[in-house]
Amino acid sequence: MTTTEILTNDLGAQAVFDGGNPRTFTATAREVISGAQLVNISGASNDVGSQISSFADGDLQVVGAIDPKLCNGMAINNAGSNELVTIATRGAYLCQAHGIVSGGALVQHNSSGGVTNLTILGSAAVASLGPRPIGTAMTTSASGANMFALVSLNI
Fold first, then answer.
1. Which of 18, 68, 76, 142 is the most buried (most CB within 10 A)?
2. pTM above 0.85, yes or no
């Protein structure tokens, strides 16, 4: 599945605060990734072995998150295909709103990378897994091209 519009902050990832302990990991971009773009792990199975010595940055490969059920974090920097990119899993970031965002509500992302209130949550079979919560809204926002919400990522 591809999308023609990726909603991100034109200024890149804007960390308002990270709790004093940034939680990031390094991955290889499988496609061009923009700073502030939500991403998910993608690649072959069996990427890692049983020994820590076999683990390398290239073992984790990311693509832009276009499925609301999948998200591993937010890209901190721009990266070309096959370049290294830093991914944040925690911290408070400015995210473009693509739906109503209510302060204090769990939020999800959509297929374009914007955030909106999480509307489905509960126990479901894996085959019918609903959207994945990616954090909690710290501010309220309407939906729009230049509307942003402060989201505390918890991925």
1. 76
2. no
Q: How far apart are the first and last CA of the chain?
A: 22
Determine the Cα angle at 54 with ends 50 and 60, to 5°.
95
Query: What's the full length of the chain, in residues?
Result: 155
- Which residue type sits at 38? L
Q: pLDDT tens per residue, the chain (155 residues)? A: 455 566 677 887 777 776 667 789 999 999 999 999 999 999 767 777 777 777 776 789 999 999 988 999 999 999 999 999 999 999 999 999 999 999 999 999 987 888 999 987 665 555 566 788 999 999 999 987 789 999 999 99
Place of tokens 């990266």: 79
